[in-house]
Structures are given as C-alpha cells and as structure tokens.
From TrEMBL, chain A:
Pfam families: ThiF. The keyword Magnesium does not apply. Keywords: Ubl conjugation pathway. This is NEDD8-activating enzyme E1 regulatory subunit. Pathway: Protein modification; protein neddylation. Residues 20-537 form the THIF-type NAD/FAD binding fold domain. Gene3D superfamilies: NAD(P)-binding Rossmann-like Domain. Belongs to the ubiquitin-activating E1 family. ULA1 subfamily. GO terms for cellular component: cytoplasm. GO terms for biological process: protein neddylation.
TrEMBL record, chain B:
Belongs to the ubiquitin-activating E1 family. UBA3 subfamily. It comes from Drosophila busckii (Fruit fly). Keywords: ATP-binding, Ligase, Nucleotide-binding, Ubl conjugation pathway. This is NEDD8-activating enzyme E1 catalytic subunit. Gene3D superfamilies: NAD(P)-binding Rossmann-like Domain, Ubiquitin activating enzymes (Uba3). Chain: B, domain 2, Ubiquitin-like 2 activating enzyme e1b. Chain: B, domain 3. InterPro entries: E2-binding, ThiF/MoeB/HesA, ThiF_NAD_FAD-bd, Ub_act_enz_dom_a_sf, Uba3_N, Ubiquitin-activating_enz, UBQ-activ_enz_E1_Cys_AS.
Amino acid sequence: MSSPAPAPKSPELSDKSKKYDRQIRLWGEHGQTLLEAATICLVNVTAVGCETAKGLVLPGIGGFTVTDGSSVKEEDLGNKYVDNLLTVKAAVLERNCYSFFLDASYLGKSKALACMQLLQELNPDVNGDYVDESVDYILSNRPNFFESFDLVIASNLNERSLLQLANRLWESNVPLVYCRSLGMLGSIRLQLKEHCIVEAHPDNRQFDLRLEHPFDALREHLESTEVTSKVPWLLVLYKYLKLWQKEQGDGKQAPSTYKEKTTLRELIRAAMQTDEENYEEAIKAVNTAFGAGMVPKALKAIFEDDACEQLHKKSDAFWIMTKALKHFVVEENKGYLPLPGVLPDMTANTDAYITLQQIYRQQALQDADQVYHKCQEYLKQMSLPADSIDERTVRLFCRESAGLAVLRGTRIADEYEKSCRLQPLVEDNELQDPLTAYNFALRAYERFLSECGSIPGECAVEQDIGRLKSIASKMLTDLGLQASISDDVLHEICRYGGAELHAVSAFIGGCAAQEVIKIITTQYKPIDNTFIYNAISTESVTLKL
Amino acid sequence: MSVASPVNPALTLQNKRWNGLRHVLEREGLFCKDNFTPSPDNLEFLQTSSKVLIIGAGGLGCELLKDLALMGFGDLHVIDMDTIELSNLNRQFLFRRSDIGQSKAECAARFINNRVPSCKVTPHFAKIQDFDESFYQQFHIIVCGLDSIVARRWINGMLLSMLRYEDDSVDPDSIIPMIDGGTEGFKGNARVIIPGFTACIECTLNLFPPQVNYPLCTIANTPRLPEHCIEYVKLIQWDKENPFSVPLDGDDPQHIGWIYERAQERANQFNINGITYRLVQGVIKHIIPAVASTNAVIAAACAMEVFKLATSCYDGMSNYLNFNDLDGIYTYTYEAEKSDSCLACSKTPQLLNIEDANTTTLEDVIKQLCEMPRFQLKSPALTTVMADGKQRTLYMANVASIEQATRKNLTQSLGELGLQDGQQLTITDATTPTALTLQLKYQTNEIEMS
C-alpha cells in the first residue's frame, strides 16, 4: 500500500521552533534537539537551584527531577539549634525557603513537589518529576539513582553530603554543577571527567583562506583569473603576495612581521589605479589573511591524547572522528587541516565571488569526505554500525577542526586532599586573591555546617567567627599549606548568617544554567572549573581547582 | 504555639522571608559603605518608601521585577508598550501561552502582585514618551531593560533635563540614578549612571555596535550573500509589486512567506546559497538572539546595583560591567568616562565643525548628524534664529507640509542659506526629549554671500 505523497513542506517554522527562535539562532536546531533530549536532576530546593533550573526549563530541557526531603513547614523554619543532623538539615534549608518558586500556599507540602509544579508551569513542553527524599537518604538507599541523569545540579549541601554526592557522580561519570550563594558571594564548581567540544563559537573567528599554500583548484583559479576592480580582494592579495615572495626571495610564504606586512601593503597600494574598493580591502586584509590552516597547539595535544590513539568499541564519536582527522592531516594533507570552506563577504561582482566561493566549498566537501571515509573504516574495524557517524556530523567537525577542545576536570574531593592548585595562590602566608579566599571560606562554611550543626553567624556572630576561623585554619593545615585566611573575610561570611540574596542567586543561577546548556549541547566552552563572583565589588574570577 | 491562637502562616512565613536581608541590612560589615547605618529602617525604607521604575517588561524587565520584589522592594512601576508574542516565552518567564496578545506590563505586574504579596507593581501599558517630567520625578531610581537604543537615549536625556542647578552645582534632590542593562546572545552589560556626575548614555554612544547596512548598489547589482537577496526584496521588490497592497509587516507570516519565496528566486538566479525562513525573518525584523540565562545574569547585576543605591549598604559599581559567557564566564568592570564633548550632559555648548560653508549643504550637515559616532541622530529637525532675529525652520522631515516647504534647503550650502559662523542650530530628534543646541564653527571664514 502506497502512502500519499507528503504535502510540500511549508517554509514557515513550527510552533515549537517559533517559541525557541531567539535561542535556536545561537545553538542551532541540532543544539536544541540535544537540549530537548536531556534530563537533569536538581538536588535541594534553594533560590540558586531554582534559578538554575528556571534557566533550563524555559529554553526547553527534556526533563527535570527535583529532590528535596523537606516540606514547606513552619516548624521546619523555626528549628535551629538542635544538634542532630536531621534537624540541622531543616535549619540549613530554612535560610532558603524564599525562592520565587515557593509561596505560602505550599505550606505543608513537599518542597520538591512545590518546586517541581512551579517550575513546570514555566514550560508545558518539559517533563517535571520530584522525589521528596533528602540527598543523604537517596545516596544510602538508592545509590544508583543519579546515574540516569545527564547532569546533576546541587546547592546548599554540608561538606559531608557534598563529597559523598560528588564522589558518587564522578564514579558514574555524571557531570555535577555545584552552586553556592551566600550573602554577596556566589560560586559555581563544575565537576566532570571529560568534555569534548566541537563548536566552540569563538568570538573572533579567523577565516582560513590558504593563500600562502593554495590547494590545486584554488591555485589554478587564482593564476588563471585576471585581476580587475571587480574581483574579490583575495585575488588581488594573491597576486601581490606572489610579487612580494619574489622580491623577498628568502622562501618566506607570507609576511609575519610588521615591516613585512607594510611592504606588502605598499606593493598593493602602488598598483592601485584609483581607489578600487577591492584593493583597499586587500590592504586591510594583510593583517588577518594568513596563517590559518595549521594544527593549533590545543589540537596537537588532542591528537596525542590516549583516547585518540587507543580507539575501542566504546569510544565516543568525537574520538573516532579525531583519529580520522589526524590521519587526514598527517597522511593525506601535508599537515594542513581540512578546509572549512567559509569565505568572508568581499566587494566584487556576483559571478567572481560565487565562483570563488564554490571552489572553497567544493574543496571543503572533498576534505570532509576523506575524513568521513576514514571514520567508516574505523567503525568497520571495530564492528560498529556505519550510521553511528554521518556525513553531516563529519562536515561540521571538519569545519570546526581548528577550534576543537577537550576539557578534563578534577574531582571536588581532590580540593580537600591536594593543595597543588591552591599553593600558587598563597603569598605572605595568606590566601591572596580575595575571591580565592572567599571561595575557600565558603568551603569552611560547609564544614561548619557538618561539624557544628548550625549556620555560621546566624545567631552568635562573634563566637562563630572564631569557630569558622579554626575550621578554616585546620583545613589549610590538613592541606599542608602554611597559610591563613584574612579575618575580615570570615567576618563577612558570618555577618551574612546564612542569608541567600536573590540577586546573587539569580546571577549565579543564570551563569550555571548556561554552563549546563554548554555541556548538554557540546557547544561553547564551559568554565574550567570554578567560577567565583563577588557582588560587593562586581568582580569575578575563574580558577582551576 | 497553641491551636487556640491561630497565626496567619503566610504572614509568619513572610516575616521569616526577610531574615536574610535583615542580616545584611541590620549588621555592621567591614566591607560596607562608609556612611552605611545598620538598622531595621533600611528594610522598612525598601518596603514602604522607595519607589523604583522599571522600563521594559521583556527579557530583562521580567527578571528585574522578580529580582527587586524578592530583594525587598515594595513599590515598583513598570512601563512597556508591547504585547506578548510566542517567541518571548523562551525567556520572559512571567508570561504563558494564554497571555499572547496581552500587555506585557499589565501581565507581568499581575503575576508579581499575585506571587509576592509584599510587593505592589503598577503597570503602564504605554510608551516612555507618553510621560513627562512630572511622572518620572516620583521615582528614586530608574532601571532600564530595553532593546532600543533610541529609547535609552530618550530617557537618559529626560533624566539629564530634570537636573536642577544652583549656581554651578547640581541640586542632589534632582538626581535620579539610572541603571541600564542590555543583552545580545551570550553577551551583556550593566551600568550605573548618576546623571550629571558619571558617564551617560550619550558619553559612550560609540559602545553600541554599528548597525549593519548593505550598500544599495550591492543589493541591486552585485548580490553575494543571501542577506543581499532578502534586502533586495524588502527594499525594492516589495514597493514595486506591492503584493498585499499594504506596507510590509514583519509579523505577518504571509508577508515573510512572500519575501522568502522572492528572495529564494533571486538567490537561485545568482547561484547564492543559504536562504532560510529563519534568516529572512531575522533580516526583516532585525532580530537579536536572546537566551534566558544572559537576561537573568544582567538583570541580577542591575537589581544588585539598585539595592546598593537604595540601601547604601555597599558602594555602587563604578560604573560599567561587561559580561560574556561564550568561553567560560568572563566579567570586566571598569569606569566609563564622562565625555566633555557629550551632547547631552556636558554643560558647554558643542561645536559643529564645517569644512567650507560654501560647499557644505544642509543635507551634508544632516548626514553628519546621523552618521557621526558622537551624534547618531535619526531624523533631525533643524531650526535657527537668523541675524534679523527671525525664527527659521531649516528642515523638518516628520511633518509632510513642512518637509515639502523646506526640502529645497537641503541642496543649498550653508552660505547660501545665510548661516553665519558661530550661529546656533536648534535640533530636535527622536533620540532626545529636549532640543539640542549646536554652534556652527566654520574652518574657513570667507563666505561668498549670494
């Protein structure tokens, strides 16, 4: 039975595509598809956690699950001083009760349920779920619970729970985004094992034109075309580059010093009849037109990575394509990357420009095709299905090859055991950079929660400063660091008494949501690995801890 | 607590709500602003006395309303002339599908008023130009979440015009600080403007990215990009064929569909690739990409500055924050400098240099006013007082009859128009609520009088 021919596809966008139009312009339909296929888990209902989740529900993440063991109860909110862990939890949560996603009508209900419903309301296309159990309870009773998620977002944990959760997620290879928001301070710690980025979307992309070592089709075209005022500047530049090379006579392919560039510019200017636009553009392009197409340092390291050298059946498609790319570059293309095939706009008549554009595009397709076939060869060798890597993906991969990046993270637990990353930040026996000091103080704050069972500064500011100071000193000593933290910093932490300010949470939540989107879409580079924000001075820093 | 003495749980919860803010506002701090006095009065002021205006209830505005309501502010006003569209819903989180077509300001206000009982939001479904000084005067602080540069410049001009001077110093009571946020994709900025004291919008006009304009001859004769084909259909073919007998409406899918088809035809004719429906829409409507996250970040930075200014708890940001999270997360805060030659906030008369009054036409002057980075006017109207004391309109585009009467002046030189070196031109434009004054400065002083 034959089905009727499909109706011609209307060019107008689908409803969903219209709703997400403003963001699809950034990460593309393919990025949106990945986002809509992802599910995340939000551990603990806090303002910063909810703001992060909001930044993912609105753009249409596939699904989310909120876990929180407490309910929105008045009693919970009052309990502060009992020295047992369960009530401490309630006390710790109390400071966070006020999120935009909780209101008085939810009194008595599960906090996880309330938060899930209010987040769900933001976007009916997203699947919301909840578990009204604490993270400690889940970890001890259903330790595999978190493995089904693409990523976990957590906040407001005491040190013990944080380390338990982080270790568990490291073992299961699930990325963790841990957010802190206290008073005027905030931070994001990203823990993931390995993250491969194809589309880094650099701010200033260099066009890869290959003028100094043109491929055959390009050379043929450049040398057989007359340079007039109607051709793209690329042809002008090539003509005078040749002349420059001849005059230079030292075998140098392209100008690199200021003086050499000036000489080339002068050659072009001297040949100008009137003020032809394409000559002007060629002069301007001298600075940026050369030097692309080589293997950048970061990519060299990726080529030498074990994951690239040792492919196996479970290798990510990224590594299979990387190995095929390496083969192409080293064995088939004299060390040059596959051609991206993207040209800038150049003043010229239509035919001259389009002809040139076709030559670049054709070559880019050819290069990508070779890489694609190598990928297929590897897939076959490993008895993997041929359709696990398609041509479109390889074309994109080749176009972006100069910007490929691999991020290898560190365990959060390492921060408590190894001092190597903190050592350079110590000077005159003090943690120098105020932002670093604040971040360390936030960690001491979490140990305070574990050890003392109360919130630093919530009631007895002066007394708690002393206790926080000894905790921080012990943490530094345990790390083998001869250093201290300024009293002023600890005083400021205690002054907050556990306050979570919404404007800080919204700032951190917005940033954290974007980092999650980067990880899920494998586009744009995430932080590596700790972002610290100080709203007092409106300053931030990123540290690799 | 016994069952017999019922307590309104919402009220208790609400009191507890502010525990965090109380710590920050009622305790001494080593990093606090010098003149900060910790006291319950600070929160009291936010809740009962302070009055903040939010301009724009879009991506930034929705976030600002929520942020300020949750930072303790009790009296907010919001202005927005727009209605809700489907493509807003990926970030303007106070709106739902069923709200499409309604006023953004009214819908946003309703939402906050329902969700945050301690905050009262008053909506204004209107343009900022619909209000005058007497309206803007009632606010302590104004926050802008706008996508229009013209609107930013207008409110900037309004706040500057409201400054009162005594002798040579500004009366502090007449100052209304302006916090301005802007986003584009993964980039954004937030700034604090103290009118008359720190750099204003016009001081740093060059910070706005120049608008992309394709030369008409490229569009008509040598198209190379899909954008060139779309612009051709928009600028030339639409008027010629007038397919629906109405002006082009970027929100009408029929119109966009027509342009898409014609642009595709033109692209095929020239062998140009890459016409998509999304691209056509983007070019026609000048769409700026936007995500929830950047809006949240920039609005939060703005809200924090409003909070600092209103409570004096910490020093305000000085004065310009750049944010970018394409590669990691990057922020940079610096002090944008006040410009002595600022058209809006410098107190000295600004000069307009004229190379040669005998060859420079009025049209050249208008072109300069539109294109020079420090002016960037939209459609300036020029008047002056002639040597004989008579007021004369040199050119005005916005009133058809006056345009017709003054059009002949465009091609005349300043000399031919009888304008003297040092003569003042009074200029009105959509970018400013008040008239600007520029003084002609001739480089060569020999004028051939006709």
